[in-house]
Amino acid sequence: MASINVKFPDGAEKQFDAGVTTEEIAKSISISLAKRSVAGKFNDQIVDYRQPLTTDGSIEIIAGDSEDGLNVLRQTAAQVLANAIKQLFPNIHFGSGEGNADGFFFDTDNPAEDGKQISKDDLEAISLKMNEIIKQNLPISREVLSKADALALVGDDPYQQDLVNERADANNGEVVVYKQGDFVDLSDGAQLASTGKVRVFKLLSVAGAYWQGKSSNPMLQRIYGTAFLKQKDLDADLKRRQEARERDHRVIGNELDLFFVDPKVGNGLPYWMPNGATIRRQIERYIIDKEVANGYQHVYTPVLANLDVYKQSGHWDHYREDMFPPMDMGDGEQLELRPMNCPSHIQIYNHHIRSYRELPLRIAELGMMHRYEKSGALTGLSRVREMTLNDGHTFVALDQIEDEFKKILKLMVEVYEDFDISDYRFRLSYRDPENKEKYFDDDAMWERSQKMLKSAMDDMGLDYFEAEGEAAFYGPKLDVQTKTALGGEETLSTIQLDFLLPERFDLKYVGADGEEHRPVMIHRGLVSTMERFVAYLTEMYKGAFPTWLAPKQVTIIPVNNGAHGAYAETIRRRLATAGVRVSINDRNEKMGYKIRESQTKKVPYLLVVGDQEVANGSVSVRKYGEERTESEGVDMFIGAITQEIQHYSRG
Ligand code: ATP
After folding, report:
1. Of all residues in the chain, what percent are helix, strand and coil, respectively (each to 5)?
2. What's the CA-to-centroid distance between 296 and ligand 1, angstroms?
């Protein structure tokens, strides 16, 4: 029999008969290892414990309690879920299902005439059925079918037919299925040995998901759950999820009336309510002042431009998927909604002849742009289709790149400190050299700019990680990665090096030698788009914005409207004159209720005024999040709060 050569993580190599399984390899090392383990990673691909291995390769044995092991458990839980659903809804059609780092899910579509889809109300019955299947401890087996057999198996289920065709095409006409008793499913990846090994699970929710993520496809019902080895891990995860929900900017945005998105009016097109607009306005004022103080020249440029501009820039060739279709004006002109502001700032640069004395020339704008993001990716304010970027482009001479890069980074760190942002990491985003469509094809240019970026970071002694395929089409980026409440990671700030657009738009400056030279562009967004930044801050502050950003900064509650209303009004007027966002709550409700309301709206300061305060010209101050109340003179309170607010309003 032919044999294969298997390499272990410690470098050791061993021969096995071709067709050996990971389980057999584990047993050959030790029985206890075999018992603890659930699958293998063969040449970096997860393989089922019982899958025959037929080629040479490197192997890692996956322990049940490792991250990969948990994914195998969840993959099995996903199939138990599908099995339970099939028993309860025999005619159901299945989309995709999988186990992953976040839990597991399965997509379903009920073709029943009444059109009734699986809903939250069905989760309990499905859980009970899953528990039955787990108790039966059905053995799970993996089989490989021909395309014809797999098609016969899935019958008239259109989604499963699509999957069979896709997988067979990608896998020499073969399709892997997993069996749990009578239930057969097109599961992918590895599974545990029997259903009884899934013990601790919880079904979480049901939500719509387009088939294959495309909004032109039918909407399926996605049933979400999670599974763990131990109950205590599940409990901790459920608690984390609850906290994440409470932090979710969409939930807080609704509670504090910050913004809304109505798919009937336009998916990904947010409406900023007065409270959200106030927060945004403070950020806009802050960042414009800060940038002007740091040598940026702020401009306004149109959101629309002739399509030819984006053909010249390369957006049309490399970024078209993210762009709205051009508007045909009927007279031969085609107008395009800009997906980025760089070509606009290039027009500003090119409007005058530039001298080396002007460099670095820093152009900035709160620039509105439109990107046709996939509907499945749209999330509240953090991923939208219309957004306003705190954008800036610095035009520099070659020998100024490094210094300017460092200046931008220093400015960014300063801004982060003002917003108390400390949980982030740097990512150097490179092109994917294989992807010639997405990235401008000039190896030398990429090598040079990627190296430059890396050496600037090394020089500054900053930690970073590197990622291929995350660059802009025109050049590499330094991205600042932050975590969202839902556990994902997203880019907040970015600094990008660009040798391409100056070439494409024939940018020049007159050097000290009187000759024409080509500048380099540095693109940068300090506080991201207003949309993503407000989403991020809402989650980071859990809606309790610091005073300078809070939509309402002070609420005054008179103990008795008749006796203390006039005093409350005097204080309100004085605070408002000092620029504080303040209102009086003189509604006919109990004091306790009004105090609670101010707490739920997370207003930073609550002032209660009664007989004593009127008598000695004071206010009774309660700071958000604190239990105690302190009496303060009115002048002192106004002085302190205005100082607190002004501290951030500097440039
Ligand atoms: P992403 O990887 O998040 O799609 P990108 O690499 O396409 O972003 P850039 O072109 O560098 O983004 O845009 C600058 C910044 O704008 C990003 O760093 C991000 O903070 C923000 N941003 C990008 N797309 C969106 C969006 N659809 N909604 C809200 N903010 C966005």
Report:
1. 40, 30, 30
2. 21
Using most ligand atoms within 8 A of CB, pick from 371, 388, 494 the residue to mutate for ligand 1.
494
For ligand 1, atom 22: residue with the closest CA: 529
The pLDDT value recorded for residue 448 is 87
pLDDT of 649 reads: 60
- Alpha carbons 575 and 583: distance in angstroms, whole number: 10
> Quick one: pLDDT at residue 144?
92
Angle among Cα 61, 65, 66 to the nearest 5 degrees reads 55
Q: Give 533-573 pLDDT, tens digit per residue.
A: 999 999 999 999 999 999 999 999 999 999 999 999 999 99
Q: Whose CA is nearest to atom 28 of ligand 1?
A: 383
Q: How many residues does the chain have?
A: 651
Which residue has the CA at smallest separation from atom 29 of ligand 1? 383
Tell which residue, 606, 466, 488, 574, has the closest CA to residue 539.
488
Q: What is the DSSP string of 27-46?
A: HHH-HHHHHHEEEEEETTEE
CA–CA distance from 604 to each of 251, 459, 582 (Å)?
Answer: 20, 42, 11
Collapsing DSSP to helix, strand or coil, 59 comes out as strand
Q: How far is the CA of 236 from the centre of ligand 1 (A)?
A: 32
Name the residue type at position 583.
Answer: S
CA-to-CA distance for 460 and 464, rounded, in angstroms? 11
Query: What was the pLDDT predicted at 651?
Result: 45
Terminal Cα-to-Cα distance of the chain (whole angstroms) = 76
Rounded distance between C-alpha atoms, residue 524 and residue 394, angstroms? 8
Q: How many CB atoms lie within 10 A of CB 43?
A: 13
Which parts of the chain sit beneath pLDDT 50?
A: 651
Taking CA atoms, 622 is separated from 557, 609, 626, in Å, by: 11, 11, 7
- Res 291: pLDDT: 97
CB-CB contact of 191 with 48 (8 Å): yes
CB of 258 within 8 A of CB of 273? yes
As for ligand 1, residues whose beta carbon falls within 6 Å of it are 340, 371, 373, 383-384, 387, 389, 490-492, 494, 525, 528-529, 531-532
User: 209 with 95: CB under 8 angstroms?
Assistant: yes
Q: How much is the pLDDT for 468?
A: 92
CA dihedral 216, 220, 226, 227 (to 10 degrees): -120
Kindly tell me the sign of the dihedral angle through the C-alpha atoms of 232, 233, 236, 242.
negative
pLDDT computed for residue 112 by the predictor: 75
Does residue 603 sit in helix, strand or coil?
Answer: coil
**Mutation test residue for ligand 1: of 319, 528, 531, the one with most atoms within 8 Å of CB:** 528
Identify the structural domains of the chain with CATH numbers, from first to last: 3-63 (3.10.20.30), 68-238 (3.30.980.10), 271-540 (3.30.930.10), 554-646 (3.40.50.800)
CA distance 632 to 526: 39
Angstrom distance (rounded) from CA 261 to CA 434: 38
Q: What does the alpha-carbon distance between residue 385 and residue 368 come to, in Å, rounded to a whole number?
A: 10
Beta strand extents in 173-249 (DSSP E only): 174-180, 183-185, 200-210, 219-228
